[in-house]
Amino acid sequence: MNIIDLVKDLFSIAKKSGNIELNMKLIDLNEKIVELQSEMSRLQKENDDLNKQISTESDIEYHEDPYLTRKIDEKPIKYCAACWASEKILVPIQALDNYAYRCPHCNVRILITAKRKQLIRGNLFI
Hints:
By secondary structure, the protein is an alpha+beta fold. It has 2 domains: 3-52; 63-121, no CATH class. 56% of the residues lie in helices and 13% in strands.
């Protein structure tokens, strides 16, 4: 017998007995049960989210440049490292050209290392 069935049985017994104080206590108990069920549901969702985050973290590959890729992606997708670090969300970055990218979520601009080195050698600073 689960707790809800038990409370229903207790309500039935209390109603038959005519004990108003017992009925009031059972109503309080029922409210607490509802609160606990709500809290348990919230904690289960939080736990699921954390487990998903841990699973995703183990799938991430970090690079010299400030972007991430995932091992499971068939075709490598570049994700914003700043969004992952701050919000634990994976946001694909958009290519501006062959060496420059932009995150549509946080607007960070990423210049790939090869191009950065080329610009520094040519005395052009970013």
